[in-house]
Every structure is written in C-alpha cells, then in structure tokens.
C-alpha cells in the first residue's frame, strides 16, 4: 500500500510563490518515481513535473523555468517549488506515480492565484 498526502497549497497574488509537499509512505514506492500533476478547472489532470530515468527533472512547458521538483529523502517527500505564479496556475495539485500505473489519489492541495 502506498499513501500520498499533498500539502502546502493556498491563495497567493500573481507573482508569488508556494512550496508544495508530497509525503509518501509505503515501501513499494520510490521517490524518483513520483511526479506532480495538476487539474485546472475544465481540464484533465496532467503531469507537469517528474524525474527522468537519469534523475534530471522534466517539466511541462507551461511551468518550465518557474517550478522546480525536488526530493527530500530524509523526510520522504517530493516537493514542488512554485515561483512567479500566474492566475492560470490555479488548480488542484496532486502527486502520484509518473509511470501511468497510478496509486490511489490523495486529496490534492488547492492553489489559487489572483490577478
């Protein structure tokens, strides 16, 4: 069993920053196999940040150069640093496997960016 718990969302002004955290429990999971997804209202849930097989981060174009994914192995979390936030970043953010073989979804964390 793998449990995923997202936290760190909130409401910010455009241009602000937030750090999201994905706490991962369960010995069957590996942190570098966990990516971040978001679901913008009216759209599907999309993978926006993950690690390549070589361990380097890969980002969707819409967040590249603004978001950064990182592993904190001591805390067993996968974090997402979000800078220069835009209103179009408003969404519910989730973490999960990046392979397509998904674990059960967590509750997600809401990010709201006002203009």
Provide an overview of this structure.
It is a single chain. The chain is mainly β. About 0% of the residues lie in helices and about 50% in strands. It contains no helices and ten strands. The strands form two sheets. Strands 2-10-9-4-5-6 form a six-stranded mixed sheet, with no helix packed on it. Strand 7 (about 65-70) and strand 8 form a beta hairpin.
Brief digest:
With 115 residues, the protein is an all-beta fold. Helices cover 0% and strands 50% of the residues.
Structural class: mainly beta
Count helical runs: 0
The major beta sheet can be summarized as: 6 strands, mixed
Strand content: over 45%
Order of helices and strands: EEEEEEEEEE
Q: Give the integer mean of the pLDDT values.
A: 95
- Cα distance spanning the termini: 40 Å
Task: Please bin the fraction of helical residues.
Answer: under 10%
The parts where pLDDT drops under 50 for at least 5 residues are none
State the strand order across the main sheet. Answer: 2-10-9-4-5-6
Q: In one word, what is the shape?
A: globular
Descriptive tags:
single chain, 115 residues, mainly beta, 0% helix
SSE layout and pairing:
Layout: E1 3-7, E2 10-13, E3 18-25, E4 34-39, E5 45-51, E6 57-59, E7 67-72, E8 77-82, E9 91-97, E10 109-114
Parallel strand pairs: 2-10
Antiparallel strand pairs: 1-3, 3-8, 4-5, 4-9, 5-6, 7-8, 9-10
